């Protein structure tokens, strides 16, 4: 009975009408085109690399995602954070090599 009422009220609904949830951002994807899905996969992989401290690879992926959505605040923020982490890592490496050279 509930199914019949649903169909009467909403009409026929198919799985093609369903909008996938962006696995990275947690909201409904605006469209189901390949670019949106590719964007979500790239950001997810970039986040995984960032968490594993693979900052160079993460930065490359965030920049690629940025090509899909130029004004995406999340990706812009992550690019800044990743660049900062790379600078910090480089400073640590430089200071440790300086210490080794002094010995």
What does this protein look like?
- By secondary structure, this protein is mostly helical.
- Helices cover about 70% and strands about 0% of the residues.
- The protein has one domain.
- It has four helices and no strands.
- It is elongated and about 50 Å long.
- It starts with a helix and ends with a helix.
Head-to-tail CA distance between termini: 82 Å
Q: What is the helical fraction, as a range of percent?
A: 55-70%
Number of domains: 1
What characteristic shape results from the CA principal axes? elongated
The secondary-structure element order is: HHHH
Strand content: under 5%
**Regions with little confidence, pLDDT below 50 for 5+ residues:** 1-22
Mean pLDDT: 75
- Computed CA radius of gyration, to the nearest angstrom: 22 Å
- The total of beta strands comes to 0
Brief descriptors of the model:
103 residues; mainly alpha; 4 helices; 69% helix
Structure in a nutshell:
With 103 residues, the chain is mostly helical.
Explain the layout of strands and helices:
Layout: H1 2-10, H2 34-51, H3 55-68, H4 73-102
